[in-house]
Each structure stands twice: as C-alpha cells, then as structure tokens.
Amino acid sequence: MIVLGYLVLTFVVTFLLGSIPWGVIVSKLAYKKDLRDEGSGNIGTTNAMRTLGKAGGAAVFVLDFGKGLLAGWLAVWVIAPMVAALPADLAVSDGLYGAFATPALNAVTLVAALAFAGCTLGHVFSPWLGWHGGKGIAVAAACLVFVYGPVGFLIEIIVFALGIALTRCVSVGSLAAAVVCPLLGLYYYGLGGHWVAWLIITATAAVVIWAHRENIARLRAGTENKIGSKKK
Fold first, then answer.
1. Which of 123, 114, 98 is nearest to 9 (CA)?
2. How far apart are CA 220 and CA 91, in angstroms?
3. Three-state DSSP class for residue 178
4. How far is Cα 10 from Cα 150, in angstroms, rounded to an integer?
5. How does residue 231 score in pLDDT terms, banded at 50, 70 and 90?
6. What does residue 43 show for φ and ψ, rounded to 5 degrees?
7. Rg of the chain's alpha carbons, rounded to an integer?
8. Which pLDDT belongs to residue 133?
9. Spatial CA neighbour of 211 closest among 178, 168, 167
10. Residue 223 is inside which H or E element, if any?
11. Predicted structure pTM score
C-alpha cells in the first residue's frame, strides 16, 4: 500500500494547501473586514478587486495563484520522484494503484492530476470556512502549469482572456477555461492512455463549473455583472 499512500498524501496535502482562504485572511488582516460580507461574498480575486481595490485584489490573486503553483510543484518534484523510485513490481502490485497502472500511467501523470484536484477542491470546499470557498479559477490555472505544461497553461489563459474580451464578463472567461480544460486533458492524457488522470481532471473541471452556477443563472437572465458597469 506504499504507492497508494503516496497518492492519498498528494491529495490531502494539496487539498489543505488549496483550502487556505487567502481572500478572507487578506481582507481581515489588511482591511479589517470579511470579504464574505462584501460584494458578491466570494473570496476570490474578482470580488477582492471590487471590494478591496487593486492592491487587495492583486494580493489575493497572487496568494491563490501561488498555492496552486506550490501544489503542482510539490506533486511533480517532491512526491512523484518518491513514487518513481519504488521498485516497479511493488508499484504495479500495490492495491488500487496496481489496478489502474499501465505503462502510460506514470507517477508524474497521476500525482499531477491529483494535485490539480486537491488544490482546486480545497479552495472550493474549504474546511476552515464551513466547507465553502471560492470558485477555483486562479488556483486551478496555476496548477495547470504542471499538469499541462506551459503551452497548455497558455491556451487556458488565452481562452480565459478571449471570453472576457468578447463579453466583458469575468465569469464567461472562467467558464470557458473550465470547459476547455477537459478537452486539453483529452489531448494531453486521454489520447495517450492516461484515462484515470483525465477522469480526475474532468471531474474537477465539472466542480469548477458547478461553483459558477449562480453566475450561469445570471448570464441566462442577462443580469451578470460586466467589467466597467455598475454592479446589479
């Protein structure tokens, strides 16, 4: 069960890392107010920009983005090498991991996908905030640097930016990036036989879309806030 233990460790560590509610911490320590009681009540960058100003919003973004980067780095450069160093026969025969192990499903692939899921779900379902949190875009995007590499990450950023540019709605850019994520995963992982990793990524992207359910309702009603317009 050694390999399975490493996989569980990856998810738990990155979940706890992702669960750190930097939006609440920054708003309380630096601005003496709770971001959850301001604007949309969301703890992410968009609401922080609107209620804390550019400096506060930038601080929240950098910290949220940073925890996604750290989660990916820990998975790929710390945990994956430990799994890869185990004897091959031990890894293949090790419980649940052994059932899914294929030549394509290597340690880096699986722990990167688990880190992406862990840090994103930790942000969306933070145990420190009663299992509530943000919408996961900044932290997820940062971890994609390690999941998809710089090219895949850049594609996600371009899709995000295009969505905003065409509609002036941050939520549209976020949703567009979330929808594209499984498609990129199909290219990077699915076509190479990494189906377990692809399923983990796809399920996580679905949770991010679910976290935007209120935005989706406002978009359908035509009442979603746009950049440069007064809050409705």
1. 114
2. 48
3. helix
4. 22
5. low
6. -95, 10
7. 18
8. 96
9. 178
10. none
11. 0.90
CA 196 to chain centre: 18
For 93, other C-beta atoms within 10 Å of its C-beta total 13
Residue 8: CB partners within 8 Å, gap ≥ 6? none
pLDDT score, position 89: 52
The confidence band for 40, taking pLDDT boundaries of 50, 70 and 90, is confident
Q: Are 129 and 24 in contact (CB under 8 A)?
A: yes
Q: Which pair of structure tokens corresponds to residue 103?
A: 């030549």
CB atoms within 10 A of CB 80: 22
| pLDDT at residue 96 in the model | 42
Are 118 and 155 in contact, with CB atoms under 8 Å apart?
A: no
Largest CA distance in the chain: 61
- β-bridge partners, 126: 132
Q: Which two tokens stand for residue 99?
A: 């059932």
∠ CA 136-141-144, nearest 5°, is 125
For residue 40, give the DSSP letter: T
State the Cα angle at 21 between 15 and 22, rounded to 5°: 120
DSSP 95-159: HHHHHH--SS--HHHHHHHHHHHHHHHHHHTBGGGTSB----HHHHHHHHHHHTHHHHHHHHHHH
- Amino acid at the residue 209: I
